[in-house]
């Protein structure tokens, strides 16, 4: 069984949607088997491998599936949540999730994730450069152009689910409090005439904080 999942994980790294979806089904049954083959790292690498790339329908579907796996892993067990939260790629995945949310509601040109526990005003340019190779790096990603509204909504839902699960991790919850753009973007989705499921996802995230 693990050999099969290992193969799926390798294929998933290439952004193959069917492999990612198969991994998600396995994850729902037993999250631990995905962790054993480092499937969470595979899907995280898919999310961060092409920053700033314009979104095609295919890439939206793949990224939605990747965020879905991460949300399930974080939600099912503490072990899964810790594995995702402590992964080197987590800060970039958080940045991308924020980017997806902001890209769909007209919020900011870019999303920034600072070293955890720091506010923007507390960090000088020199300190950012020094810390770029330590701890959790400062991450800047541009908002892509997303054409498919329905696909975008699904991507936003998956992004909210992922972030809402990470709120349960103290270091990430603290960092979210300092992300004014994210909070404002989430509030806009609640107040605007958005699909009810998207409004609910935004409310769930804000309430979890």
Task: Kindly summarize this structure in a few lines.
It contains 12 helices and 2 strands. It has 209 residues and is mainly alpha-helical.
Q: Give the structural class.
A: mainly alpha
Shape: globular
Radius of gyration: 16 Å
Q: Quote the distance from N terminus to C terminus.
A: 38 Å
**pLDDT averaged residue by residue:** 80
Largest sheet: 2 strands, antiparallel
Number of helices: 12
Give helix % range: 55-70%
Strand order of the largest sheet: 1-2
- Low-confidence regions: 106-112, 114-118, 136-147
Please trace the helix and strand order, writing H or E for each element.
HHHHHHHEHEHHHH
Strand proportion? under 5%
List strands and helices in order, with pairings.
Layout: H1 2-13, H2 17-29, H3 31-36, H4 39-48, H5 57-76, H6 78-85, H7 90-103, E1 110-113, H8 125-131, E2 139-142, H9 149-166, H10 170-177, H11 180-191, H12 196-208
Helix pairs in contact: 1-2, 1-4, 2-5, 4-5, 5-6, 5-9, 7-9, 9-12, 11-12
